[in-house]
Design brief:
- By secondary structure, the protein is mainly alpha-helical.
- It has one domain: Chorismate mutase (Chorismate Mutase Domain, subunit A, Up-down Bundle), CATH 1.20.59.
- It is built from three helices and no strands.
- Helix 1 crosses helix 3 and helix 2 runs antiparallel to helix 3.
- It is extended, with a radius of gyration of 17 Å.
Length: 93
Amino acid sequence: MVNRNILKIRKQLDSIDDDLLNLIKKRTKLVSLILKNKKFKNEIVDNKRISVILKNIKKKSRKKKIDVIVTEKIWKSMIRSFIDYEYRNFDKK
């Protein structure tokens, strides 16, 4: 049997997950708007932009005292996922 504290904390985690899903939905809409402005598939991956994003996330993570490895992995995964999303949706625009 899982103790009450763990159940309480998991409920908070579930709420944060809901918030994250709402943010991902907003981010997806913005990525879709950017995709509409791209004329060629080779515009999808912008390595300079990716580098700047990751550097900023690392800096902000340190400032907020968040584990830098965790945030870097999350952002790299998110970036890869949105690049995939753009490739899958490029021809449909």
